[in-house]
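Practice problem: predict the structure.
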Amino acid sequence: MEKYDSIIDLPHYEPRRHPRMSMQSRAAQFAPFSALEGLDEALAETERRSIH
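Answer:
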């Protein structure tokens, strides 16, 4: 790792004019994407069956 010894302990870059996005804002970007199509319905059905 000698190749990176001069930079390995440098602080993470933080831009001055572009503040870091909040975790909620970042998560909202992916909200419309549903990788597991039908998961909500399957969970609701499982919950419904376990209650009755």
